[in-house]
Design a protein that fits this description.
By secondary structure, the protein is an all-alpha fold. It has three domains: 2-43, no CATH class; 69-130; 134-183, no CATH class. The protein contains eight helices and no strands.
Length: 185
């Protein structure tokens, strides 16, 4: 409403400017001058530029998402540092194939979000564990050894395989301490 009133007033003042200057009151001439300055200032003012948001190349994204396969590959490489290149490639290939499956079209976005959350959680845990001092890592290995007795034989065998293959998501030095504790149980 206020904006519309300003436009009407501006129009009236501009129209009044068309009247001969001799017939106009000095106050009206002053207001017309201000109105003209406002119009010129507004017309010459630079327009605020909206930031250009790059759109993803739709030929390179997973259908129905804005996620490129290269983003997932980078997420896997950054989050699963304890795995070798071949193992990270296997994870990517498996996830990539599942995301391209037409039957997964309805859950593609949720799959990506779930995977990204888990990958970032693994990465955060790895960074936290890597910051532990050597003494804290040794204490953690001792606690690990004492908890092994509560696991079933089958779980212990699987855990041993994970430790030997380096597939447990812990830094390498901690994995070695856990493996030593596991084998000395």
């Amino acid at each position: 409403m206020h904006r519309r009133l300003r436009k009407v007033l501006l129009f009236a003042l501009l129209y009044a400017g068309a009247i001969a200057p001799a017939a106009a009151d000095p106050v009206v001439m002053f207001l017309i001058g201000i109105a003209r300055e406002m119009v010129v200032k507004h017309a010459t003012a630079p327009k605020p530029r909206t930031p250009d948001i790059p759109l993803p190349d739709l030929s390179r994204v997973y259908p129905g998402t804005s996620v490129e396969p290269e983003h997932l590959r980078r997420l896997i490489d950054d989050s699963f540092l304890y795995l070798d290149g071949r193992q990270r490639r296997e994870i990517f290939d498996s996830l990539h194939a599942a995301l391209l499956e037409p039957k997964n079209a309805a859950v593609r976005g949720a799959m990506i979000e779930y995977f990204a959350t888990k990958a970032l959680t693994v990465r955060a845990a790895q960074l936290t564990l890597a910051k532990l001092s050597w003494r804290e890592k040794q204490r953690l290995a001792e606690e690990f050894k004492s908890e092994l007795g509560g696991l079933s034989e089958e779980d212990q065998v699987q855990l041993g395989e994970l430790l030997r293959s380096g597939l447990l998501p812990v830094p390498g030095d901690l994995n070695q301490l856990l493996l030593t504790a596991f084998e000395s149980r």
